[in-house]
Amino acid sequence: MLKIKRIKDGRKNVDQVKELLDSRSGDNLAKYRDVAADVLKKVKAEGDQAVLDYTSRFDGVEFDASELEVTEAEIKAALKEVDTDFIEALKNAAVNIEEFHAEQKDKSWQKQKKPGIITGQVCRPLKKAGVYVPGGRAAYPSSVLMTVIPAKVAGVEEIIMLTPPDKEGKVSPVILAAAEIAGADRIFKVGGAQAVAAAAYGTETIPGVDIIVGPGNIYVSMAKELVFGQVKIDMIAGPSEIMIMAEKDSNPAYIAADLMSQAEHDPLASSILVTDAPELIGEVERELEKQIEKMSKKDIIKESLENFGLMIEVENQKAAMEMINLVAPEHLELAVKNPFELLPAVENAGSIFLGEYTPEPIGDYYAGPNHVLPTNSTARFFSPLSVRDFVKYSGFIHYSKEALKEASGDVICLAEGEGLDAHANSVRIRKEN
Ligand SMILES: NC(=O)c1ccc[n+]([C@@H]2O[C@H](COP(=O)([O-])OP(=O)(O)OC[C@H]3O[C@@H](n4cnc5c(N)ncnc54)[C@H](O)[C@@H]3O)[C@@H](O)[C@H]2O)c1
Ligand SMILES: N[C@H](CO)Cc1c[nH]c[nH+]1
Ligand SMILES: [Zn+2]
């Protein structure tokens, strides 16, 4: 019998919702953050040797440094092993993902504001990107496409993929096939916080990068948070989340299936239903009991649902929207008849799935928008992974002698107002000579 926490009147008992959110964030993550911090420190100081030690400890594989990089021969062998239908499906997904991300491409621009004044912005791709592809509890070829394709569209020079080895010291053939399709340049068999550390600081074998992107478990997420500033990071894309808003006529079998789809990622994943139809909750619970037994990852699903699942009753759709914007879920399904009517009220969500025939996995694999998404309520301020993450911008300015003369009064006034005489002098000297 599954025991999922139920909140009777969401609006009145909002503290109980906040309690669940807190249990997956902030100080409650200290024990994972501490592990990640130790790993970062050791890899920074000892390079390859620390990476190899952690790979032995956490992944159970004994390597020497020369075995960390995936070889051409391994890629060729993998391609032969993968089913042609799977390759075809990957290629079809890659087309959709590429098409979607091509729309995000930014251009450099300049404009003449008035005679003698030109301002603009140069947009350049980052040189080296490290993409993390999870591989602990499941292999994620879809995450290869979702991370490498936007980097390619942005024009990144070198894409370095990091992914954990399996117990035999291999990378899953499906991951290698996806890397080949998407165009990763180098692949290293290293996972967890040690992968993030290696990419952030560089080791004798693994090159340091300018940005680290991609999803991962709590150790990966904490490590990314800690190396921010040493390198750029995309966001915190940790254990998966889904929130479903449903109404009286929503299909409980679909809702149960979708809640489980994210719960199966990780015992730390979180699945939430919010509805103004209390009777639906019982129906979804019965469906969960029925469907869970058929799932290969039922133990993970159960642990996730019991620890981080929620069924929230609210009085109306407005209150449901308040809950959604408070939770700021990674994935939001609006499993209602008129989802587009509700869309403008959604302020905080990583990716939004509209209508009963748009299950979350269509976005995980196929539709085109990125599946690397902010978790832990960080959809309040983070966005999905995009081409923009892989570029940087420089502003530029040109003033003619006459244009500077015209602006000099204001600039000198502002500089003197800040008490910065040397700044004022830099402008005055040109005005007077
Ligand atoms: N938010 C997103 O966009 C998104 C997308 C896809 C997947 N995900 C999430 O990615 C995660 C994938 O997790 P995973 O575990 O399957 O693979 P993973 O590759 O993220 O993590 C596996 C690595 O974690 C390290 N590790 C495991 N236990 C450890 C311990 N006790 N101490 C220190 N390090 C340890 C190991 O080095 C191992 O290689 C899931 O949480 C899933 O929900 C998130
Ligand atoms: N749902 C995950 C993001 O939280 C992405 C994914 C990849 N494969 C299956 N699911
Ligand atoms: Zn998923």
Automatic annotation (TrEMBL):
CDD domains: Histidinol_dh. It comes from the Bacteria. Catalyzes the sequential NAD-dependent oxidations of L-histidinol to L-histidinaldehyde and then to L-histidine. This is Histidinol dehydrogenase. Zn(2+) binds at residues 262, 265, 364, 423. Pathway: Amino-acid biosynthesis; L-histidine biosynthesis; L-histidine from 5-phospho-alpha-D-ribose 1-diphosphate: step 9/9. GO terms for molecular function: histidinol dehydrogenase activity; NAD binding; zinc ion binding. The keyword Amino-acid biosynthesis applies. NAD(+) binds at residues 132, 194, 217. Belongs to the histidinol dehydrogenase family. Its EC number is 1.1.1.23. It is an enzyme of class 1 (oxidoreductase). Its cofactor is Zn(2+). It catalyses: L-histidinol + 2 NAD(+) + H2O = L-histidine + 2 NADH + 3 H(+). HAMAP family: HisD. GO terms for cellular component: cytosol. Binds 1 zinc ion per subunit. The keyword Nucleus does not apply. Keywords: Amino-acid biosynthesis, Histidine biosynthesis, Metal-binding, NAD, Oxidoreductase, Zinc. The active site is at 330 (proton acceptor), 331 (proton acceptor). It comes from Halanaerobium saccharolyticum subsp. saccharolyticum DSM 6643. The gene is hisD. Substrate binds at residues 240, 262, 265, 331, 364, 418, 423. Pfam families: Histidinol_dh. One of its GO terms (biological process) is L-histidine biosynthetic process.
